[in-house]
């Protein structure tokens, strides 16, 4: 607290990211990073960009990257917005598209940055409970909505809605922006991007942090029809003209263009997820169906905090949320097969 703060700062409840400890031998399964390195083509592109060119500002509209994303997803570059991580893209959407007389709707159990942005930008919101199976029910969103946001697959549950359900949600709310946060979609979900051509109220948000192994580069993007993208551009150009530096733009473009690396690494993650899920189930864990690079699991005889604490004693960190409905779950990022083996060995000892 300080008398120097603007009044709004007193009211904020900032997001707390998963910790990033620096410990030798740590098995870090807490922030849904990809266990495999970025494509060698990404590293080469970044290296090629480090030179005298850094004297100069980058392209404020990252046209080369937006063109690569547009080619990949069959949309015009003008329908692509890029930002400094999808968190920044989301922040601009909260400010530029979600603040209306009617409330923003999102699930009660979801990405915990959403209520933080609501606090920052004064967006009134209503949370819609997941059903008893911890799934999003599209019918539950039949209520007054200024806008809707949901991750698909949802976080931290990992569960995905089929595309037909997403389309139903978008078509049932023609007067509200429906934003689908597809941070994890590349690990087995169905993307709503092909619907963008038909629905002017649909915005789809992606990140390169997960399936492209680039959490450290900070690049995310949104795809939508021009009026939605223009709102994001207006907010961005009132905040920071250069959200992507030269290295980020070059690395991200190479990542988007390297389909082979993307398919190989996400394939490995999905195969490890299937193995880890069956091993956890064999130990008595209840594991929610996951289409993401993590699983959400609980053990009927052990509290979540206890399990997370005992794993930590063994230098294995997973994410535990001290929140009603999910306090007994662990969110476990899919690591390399060796990391998954260390995790299951430790859990076998504990349970
Ligand atoms: C659902 C969801 N959306 C967005 C993000 C933000 O990703 P980034 O800012 O790294 O692009 C995350 C990060 O964990 C997430 O879980």
What report would you give on this structure?
The protein is of the alpha/beta class. The protein folds into 2 domains: 7-37 and 260-350, Aspartate Aminotransferase, domain 1, CATH 3.90.1150; 55-257, 3-Layer(aba) Sandwich (Aspartate Aminotransferase, domain 2). It contains 11 helices and 12 strands. It has helices spanning 7-11, 40-49, 63-73, 85-97, 113-121, 163-172, 226-236, 246-257, 259-282, 304-313, 337-350; strands spanning 27-29, 80-83, 104-107, 125-128, 147-151, 177-181, 202-207, 220-224, 286-287, 294-298, 316-318, 329-333. It has a 7-stranded mixed β-sheet, with helices on both faces. A 3-stranded antiparallel β-sheet has the order 9-10-12. A two-stranded parallel ribbon has the order 1-11. Strand 3 (104-107), helix 5 and strand 4 form a beta-alpha-beta unit. The model has no long low-confidence stretch (mean pLDDT 97). The chain binds pyridoxal-5'-phosphate. Belongs to the class-II pyridoxal-phosphate-dependent aminotransferase family. Histidinol-phosphate aminotransferase subfamily. It comes from Pseudoxanthobacter soli DSM 19599. This is Histidinol-phosphate aminotransferase. Homodimer.
């Amino acid at each position: 607290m300080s008398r120097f703060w603007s009044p709004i700062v007193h009211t904020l409840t900032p997001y707390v990211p998963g910790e990033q400890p620096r410990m030798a031998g740590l098995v870090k399964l807490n922030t849904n990073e990809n266990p495999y390195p970025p494509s060698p083509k990404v590293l080469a592109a970044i290296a090629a960009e480090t030179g005298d060119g850094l004297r100069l500002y980058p392209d404020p509209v990252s046209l080369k990257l937006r063109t690569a994303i547009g080619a990949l997803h069959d949309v015009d570059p003008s329908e692509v917005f890029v930002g400094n991580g999808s968190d920044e893209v989301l922040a601009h959407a909260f400010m530029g598209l979600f603040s209306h007389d009617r409330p923003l709707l999102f699930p009660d159990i979801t990405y915990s940055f959403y209520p933080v942005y609501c606090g920052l930008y004064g967006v009134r919101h209503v949370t819609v409970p997941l059903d008893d199976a911890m799934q999003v029910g599209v019918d539950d969103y039949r209520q007054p909505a200024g806008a809707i946001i949901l991750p698909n697959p949802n976080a931290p549950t990992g569960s995905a809605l089929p595309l037909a359900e997403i389309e139903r949600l978008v078509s049932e709310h023609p007067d509200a922006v429906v934003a689908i946060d597809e941070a994890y979609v590349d690990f087995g979900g169905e993307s709503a991007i092909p619907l963008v051509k038909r629905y002017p109220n649909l915005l789809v948000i992606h990140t390169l942090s997960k399936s492209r192994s680039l959490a450290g580069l900070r690049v995310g993007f949104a795809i939508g029809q021009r009026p939605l993208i223009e709102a994001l551009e207006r907010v961005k150009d009132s905040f920071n003209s250069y959200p992507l530096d030269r290295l980020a733009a070059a690395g991200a473009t190479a990542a988007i263009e390297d389909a082979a690396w993307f398919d190989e690494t996400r394939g490995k993650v999905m195969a490890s997820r299937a193995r880890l899920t069956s091993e956890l189930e064999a130990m008595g864990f209840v594991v929610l169906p996951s289409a993401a690079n993590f699983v959400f699991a609980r053990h009927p005889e052990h509290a979540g905090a206890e399990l997370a604490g005992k794993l930590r004693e063994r230098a294995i960190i997973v994410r535990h949320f001290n929140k009603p409905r999910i306090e007994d779950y662990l969110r476990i990022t899919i690591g390399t097969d060796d990391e998954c083996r260390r995790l299951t060995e430790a859990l076998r000892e504990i349970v």
